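During the practical work, I worked with a single protein chain and the tokens that describe its fold, as given directly below.
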Amino acid sequence: MTTRHTASTGHPTDKDHRGVFRPDRGHLIAAVLMLFLLVFLVGFAPLKTFWLFLFPALFIYWALKAHTTVDDKGISAVYAFRKGAHLPWEDVSGVSYRGSRALAEDKNGDSIVLPGVTFNSLPRLSEASRGRIPDPVTDAKVAADGKVEVIDRNGHSVLMTQEEYQAHQRGQH
């Protein structure tokens, strides 16, 4: 996430508060591996298979170009192979996930794909949106902090504090 800071306080300024989410750069390593494998494949029949180098090139282009920007104006998505999209905050109804794709939903039920946004980036997304998009991940971690998971014979699990767990243990003996 990119955030500019004021010189005096070190806190993000109101107009510069934004987050940029990009696909994982590990995709570039995968593309390089594809290129190495293709060198061997193309070496056997170069006139018929030279065009296969197009796939890793397009994959690299996508990994470098696609991104999502979250700022005070809304959510903007830049795609590699189609026109970008923008959703102002007053039209955003929430964020959902279909498979591994993050989607920003508007109040009409339409959605835009958010490149570079994953479930694990929800805390950063919440921070960049200044709480307009809630962060259930951090809340769940805080709620479970210091608790013990107890699983009964039927496979049901319950989170308990240390004190509750000790009382539970005493009740079983």
